[in-house]
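INFO batch 0412 | record 1 of 1 | parsing
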Amino acid sequence: MVNNVILMKLSLFLARLLNAYSILIWVRIIFSWIFPRPSRQNWIYWIGRVVDPYLSAFQSKKSVIGRLDFSPIIAIGVLSVVESILQYYGYYGTITLSMFLYVFLYAFWNYGLSIYFWILFFALVFKTIASFSRNPQMWGMADGIGSAARPVTDFVRSFAKRRILSERAVSLISLALVLVVWFMVKYLVAWLGTIVLRIPL
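INFO prediction complete | emitting tokens
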């Protein structure tokens, strides 16, 4: 009994460490769009030294679709699954197969894909606002921030083919597409979650 309590407390401690590490990874990803090659004087460089070895373990040609690299999402998803399992064990002292699968599904959504959808959403909102502006400085900022959404905007342009769409139209269509896919995936995850919980083990 005492050993079990110690293991539960250790699990919660490790879960908190993994949570802090996940936050560092997201900071690294977001600031890599602004500072792609930070100098040693930049604090982003030192965060990169801490998280890049872990992220590089997930990089491969299979994780890249078009210009979109899914390896950070996979890396954070794996980390969040382990974190959630440790948390669950830390609170309840046991874990079943159905709870493991449920935790796996929701951790991957909550800490991986849904955060990525938020980033795409805000990048496209900023790009859309900039497309209505006449300020060249804002256009430059929109190119930097909007680069996170480039796979989506390129996808929209590829469907236009011979039609030349304005930046404003591309941004608005891309924003609508991201919102539709976001809600579809969210409800798919919820539906799968109810099925997983019915597993008797």
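INFO post-check: The chain has a mean pLDDT of 78.
INFO record closed
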